[in-house]
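Supplementary Note 2. Why include the ligand at all?

Several targets in our set were suspected to adopt different conformations when bound, so apo predictions alone were not considered sufficient. For every target with a known small-molecule partner we therefore ran a joint prediction. The input for calcium ion is given below.
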Amino acid sequence: MTICTIILAAGKGTRMRSDLPKVLHRIADKPLLRHVYDLCQQIEHNQIKIIYGYGGEQVKQTLSDINAVWIEQAQQLGTGHAVIQAKDQIADKDTVLILYGDVPLLKLVTVETLLAQVTAQTLALLTVELPNPTGYGRIVRNAKGQVIKIVEEKDANALEKQITEVNTGIMAIDGAKLKDCVARLTNQNAQGEYYLTDVIELAVADGFSIASSQPQTVEEVLGVNNKAQLSQLERVYQLEQAKVLMAQGISLRDPARFDLRGSLEQIGQDIEIDVNVLLEGRISLGHRVKIGANVILKNAVIADDVDILPMTIIEDAIIGQGSRVGPFARIRPETELDVNVHIGNFVEIKKTKVAAGSKINHLSYIGDAIVGSQVNIGAGTITCNYDGVNKSITVIGDGAFIGSDTQLIAPVSVGKNATIGAGSTITKDVPENQLTLSRGKQTTVPGWQRPSKK
Ligand code: UD1
Ligand code: CA
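The joint prediction is reproduced in token form.
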């Protein structure tokens, strides 16, 4: 069986009150349309057609990597009209699946159930019970309980408005039959639109039967029409992800205060994550990693037994086994910490390799540097890596001890086991094993007196 999925994504989404086309708004940092596309990719023998319209070029550019046929609907004259645009792309023997670019949380099992119901004489419809059905098309059944038509809210009479079983819009139908029905749609209705929903009544008149099924949760079929719904579905999605991670053994102190905007590529055992942690991009977490409250990790590889203390931000970096980072540390791109490194509060590290066992515990900026093993960098040490035009490198040898408040004016190198006295401004290379300092001698002025008011 070949599936032809048509994703309707032409609408502007006026209620989003945004210049961004609706389907490009994001859940977990991924455009709504890409959520739908990713689901489609899990369906076998599936050819994907996307009906685009408003903001078309931007939509196509944002999803330029996907494997789908883009079909323009220049004017949005209704969901039926949208499907008509794809008629040349539908083979008679295809099973056509209709999805929506703004319904991001639909599950594969729900789609598979729907597809399994389709036959040459059966249209499969996904419906849902809503206590408050306002705004949705209502599912009208006959005395035998068979679906006979869908009535849109604006066309419904008082009795029909009381129906709480509504149309999700998602359906699957034989390709030839769909093409036959959409060709016969009219726009004689309250909204002057070509309704895809009218296909049901046409198919029933031709002797088709309508099979209906329901999703496991209502959230699966909720669409995004405004910012409030977007945030609601973000939370639903995040909670789902959190549950998956907990099932894999991660301890989340509060799954409602956890966000993953990307993917966890590797996870070890006995990981503990405190509240308000945000993981972005591709993240790997080793065994026994502990992540404190309010930590942000983006594209980071965190090895076994690492302790990340609260309020720390780590981006595009590798943190070696047994290291401790934070609280209040900022690890910037291209940083690599080897094993057992300690980075403390108010320390910023950029594009720097730090070898095993080194400590940078307080108030330092280390950028464009190569730091050896067992180095101790005192509080307030700064690598002056930028002269306003060029970036230069600082090399610090194994076992060096850099006194507090040292400025290392790069390019400069510090020899192995060198000691630099506190408060030094280092402009020349520092020899191994010796004490180097550059500080004015302390003097006391005898007999000096504080000025007094005249
Ligand atoms: C539609 C259904 C309604 C159902 C509801 C579920 C019809 C006539 N009504 O109503 O029964 O309960 O969805 O949410 O189908 N779109 C296009 N081109 C168009 C019109 C719409 O691509 O010309 C796209 C929109 O971008 C959107 C989707 O189709 O993603 C649904 O359109 P919308 O206008 O929101 O449909 P509803 O009026 O909500
Ligand atoms: Ca509409």
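The chain has two domains: 3-221, 227-436. The chain is about 15% helix and 35% strand. Comparable summaries for the other entries are listed in the accompanying table.
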